[in-house]
Design goal:
This protein has one helix at 2-28, and strands spanning 37-42, 48-54, 63-68, 71-77, 87-91, 97-102, 112-117, 120-126, 136-141, 144-150, 160-164, 170-175, 185-190, 193-199, 209-213, 219-224, 234-239, 242-248, 258-263, 266-272, 282-287, 290-296, 306-311, 314-320, 330-335, 338-344, 354-358, 364-369, 379-384, 387-393. The chain is mainly β.
């Protein structure tokens, strides 16, 4: 999701550090390679005024030194081996670096500026969008980068603050992701890798989302406080960076009463305790992110007594345990989402003995009953406006047949 897309833009903040540190090392402790070659140039007084150096013995000049009064004041270096200088070190009379510039992308424009004090870097500035203005600022203590500030939108407004350990590894960054003038996202790192993130997603000043990551920076768990209480009421769990389960407290009891289950990132099942009593009373099943079945305990006493089947989110069929005995004795059939037919097994023999039909307006129009449970209708009732308007005897009842359930009340 959103979190993963933010991670890469934080990485360049530490990626510039090796370069900044290397500038200091190269300029103060030059390593010329196996067979360096140097060619000095002198003025009419015999003082050296510049020098060309092949620091690696490759036969190609990679360093140009400018002198003043016999003292080096500028050292230009070709760091990308294209034959042109792309880093410039300004030296003090005691030959310590006092400032440096770098063209890091080879476009001919300086985009990094470094300030030194007594030979150690104290601040670096970087232009990240080639507009000639610094967008990132890195601050040093005792030669080590400890903090960085960055304008993520490159508009001059600082929105990211990063903090580093003694080894130059990122340990924490803070981002103003909401444009409110203060940090709303706090990310924590271990070994330079993201391990935890806290977010104020509303910009209200209160943390309301917490994310946790594994050693490969993959999301493993996320908690959110959506109710405004400041405490989590949503818990999501991930494997290999993909969600597998999400729990929610929708009734404010401090514990989850709704759970979502995912397979390959797709919702497969939803379970709910609608009253927060600790007992499930609704289970929804999904295929291709669409509901296909719902089980309900409508009496909330521990038994699922209604099962509903759907196709493309539209109800097709329903089975009901009207007596709450663990047996589905009522079948409802739907057409275009409307109830069209019911079959009712009133005596529990596994066969329907009442059949009801409905019109397109959902009104009952016909009811047939098997009076002595032989599997055939004996009496037929016709309805209009919800009332019986006609009764027809199809088969006579047996004299010794069981008592007939007259006009059963169908839930």
């Amino acid at each position: 999701m959103t979190v993963s897309s933010q991670i890469p833009r934080f990485l360049p903040a530490c990626a510039v550090l090796p370069f900044v540190i290397s500038l200091f090392i190269v300029s103060v402790f030059p390593a010329w390679g196996g067979k360096p070659a140097s060619k000095p140039f002198y003025n009419e007084n015999g003082q050296v005024i510049r020098e060309e150096v092949d620091s690696t013995g490759s036969g190609q000049i990679d360093t140009w030194v400018t002198y003043q009064d016999g003292v080096p004041i500028l050292q230009a270096v070709d760091t990308n081996k294209d034959g042109k200088p792309d880093a410039w070190y300004h030296l003090s009379p005691d030959r310590q670096v006092k400032s440096a510039e770098k063209d890091s992308d080879g476009d001919g424009k300086v985009d990094i500026w470094i300030t030194y004090h007594q030979g150690s870097p104290i601040k670096a500035e970087q232009d990240l969008n080639a507009d000639g203005r610094a967008d990132r600022f890195i601050f040093y203590e005792k030669g080590n980068a400890v903090r960085a500030e960055e304008s993520l939108k490159r508009d001059g407004r600082i929105t990211l603050w990063s903090f580093y350990d003694d080894a130059g590894l990122l340990i924490r960054d803070e981002e103003d992701a909401k444009g409110v003038g203060r940090a709303t996202v706090f990310s924590y790192y271990q070994g330079g890798k993201l391990s935890r993130r806290e977010e104020d997603t509303k910009g209200s000043g209160q943390i309301d989302r917490w994310s946790y990551y594994d050693k490969d920076e993959r999301l493993t768990r996320r908690e959110a406080a959506r109710g405004g209480s400041g405490r989590p009421d949503v818990w999501a769990y991930y494997e290999n960076g993909q969600i597998i389960k999400q729990e929610e407290d929708t009734v404010g009891r401090g514990r989850p009463n709704v759970a979502y289950f995912f397979q390959a990132g797709a919702l497969s099942r939803r379970e709910e305790d609608t009253q927060g009593t600790g007992r499930l009373d609704v289970i929804d099943w999904y295929e291709n992110d669409k509901p296909v079945k719902r089980q309900q305990d409508t009496r909330r006493q521990g038994k699922m007594d209604v099962v509903t089947y759907l196709r493309d989110g539209v109800i097709q069929r329903q089975e009901v345990d009207t007596k709450y005995e663990g047996r589905y004795d009522l079948i409802r059939v739907f057409k275009n989402g409307r109830l069209s037919r019911e079959e009712y097994d009133t005596n529990g023999d596994g066969r329907p003995d009442v059949w009801v039909s409905y019109n397109e307006r959902g009104e009952k129009v016909l009811q047939e009953e098997d009076a002595d449970y032989t599997g055939r209708a004996h009496v037929r009732f016709r309805f209009a406006g919800g009332k019986v308007v006609d009764k027809e005897v199809i088969l006579e009842e047996r004299a010794d047949g069981p008592a007939r359930l007259l006009m059963p009340k169908i839930p």
